[in-house]
């Protein structure tokens, strides 16, 4: 039971009712945020259409939004937009998962082994700030000009933020829970799986949330440079034929895909960290 008072009057509220009030308040805040975001996007769309219709910008440099949406609808009816989105998402997610499968174990091992940390820390420190796209000619030379080199390029770009976040998260775990688990007889593997990784998971997931947009950017850039199907390849083809409507249609597709991916990651984070204090905000 929880009490809520106003002056000298005290009302007892069940814990379930208080939890329901908090949930309702959270939903109202979420709806309010969504309403603000939708209003901002709608305002930008109206501004885009108005500026082009008033001839304040040359239509070749900025085509009207209505023409872009019409082209997008035609691509939807023909099915080409689904092929491009599927190929770009496949390359981005394949490279992302490959990077996560390598970077997360390596980051954990680096935090637990001084020898591994001594060996990999200089490599990661040098590689992290480097422009990863500069390695694309090497990957094309080593592999091929098709999906293999694109996926490896994406994995290479996603690797560094994930391994850095994993190492930082596992290294920063408070020593008291670890000592408490050891005092109760927990073995090293149990401490790792039941104490260290759960406590480090918020920062690890943050690294994944940073890496996936980086992977999507890398995917689009590699498609532009190497050609072929995909959002980036379609955009660069439209640009070569001076099809500005096609270029901006690709931008709208990228914006939609990025929005869906980012929101999906936020939802997954909320489900995985439902036990964490951040979920109460």
UniProtKB/TrEMBL annotation:
- Which regions span the lipid bilayer? 29-51, 89-111, 123-145, 151-170, 191-221, 241-262
Q: Membrane topology type, per the record?
A: Multi-pass membrane protein
CC per GO annotation = plasma membrane
Choose any GO biological process term that the UniProt entry carries and state it. transmembrane transport
Where does the UniProt annotation locate this protein? Answer: Cell membrane
Question: What keywords sit in the KW lines?
Answer: Cell membrane, Membrane, Transmembrane, Transmembrane helix, Transport
UniProt xrefs under Pfam families? BPD_transp_1
- Give yes or no: UniProt keyword Ribonucleoprotein: no
Where on the tree of life does the source sit, at the highest rank? Bacteria
* Chief subcellular location: membrane
Q: Where is the ABC transmembrane type-1 domain?
A: 85-269
In the record, the note on similarity to other proteins reads: Belongs to the binding-protein-dependent transport system permease family.
Protein's name according to its UniProt entry: Taurine ABC transporter permease
Species for this entry: Microvirga aerophila
Taxonomic lineage from the root: Bacteria, Pseudomonadati, Pseudomonadota, Alphaproteobacteria, Hyphomicrobiales
């Amino acid at each position: 039971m929880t009490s809520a008072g106003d002056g000298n009057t005290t009302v007892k509220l069940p814990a379930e009712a208080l939890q329901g009030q908090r949930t309702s308040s959270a939903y109202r805040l979420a709806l309010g945020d969504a309403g603000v975001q939708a209003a901002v996007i709608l305002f930008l769309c109206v501004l885009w259409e108005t500026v082009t219709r008033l001839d304040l910008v040359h239509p070749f440099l900025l085509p009207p939004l209505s023409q872009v949406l019409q082209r997008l609808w035609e691509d939807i009816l023909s099915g080409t937009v689904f092929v491009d989105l599927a190929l770009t998402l496949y390359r981005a997610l394949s490279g992302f998962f490959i990077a996560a499968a390598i970077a997360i174990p390596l980051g954990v091992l680096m935090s637990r082994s001084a020898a591994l940390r001594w060996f990999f820390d200089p490599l990661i420190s040098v590689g992290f700030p480097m422009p990863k796209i500069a390695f694309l000619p090497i990957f094309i030379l080593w592999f091929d000009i098709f999906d293999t080199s694109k996926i490896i390029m994406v994995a290479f770009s996603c690797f560094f933020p994930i391994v850095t976040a994993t190492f930082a998260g596992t290294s920063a775990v408070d020593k008291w829970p670890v000592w408490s688990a050891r005092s109760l007889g927990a073995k090293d593997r149990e401490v790792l799986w039941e104490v260290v990784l759960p406590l480090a998971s918020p920062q690890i997931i943050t690294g994944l949330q940073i890496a996936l947009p980086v992977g999507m950017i890398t995917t689009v850039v590699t498609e532009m440079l190497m050609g072929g199907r995909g959002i980036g390849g379609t955009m660069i083809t439209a640009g070569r034929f001076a099809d500005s409507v096609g270029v901006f249609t690709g931008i709208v597709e990228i914006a939609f895909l990025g929005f869906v991916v980012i929101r999906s990651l936020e939802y997954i984070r909320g489900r995985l960290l439902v036990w964490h204090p951040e979920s109460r905000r």
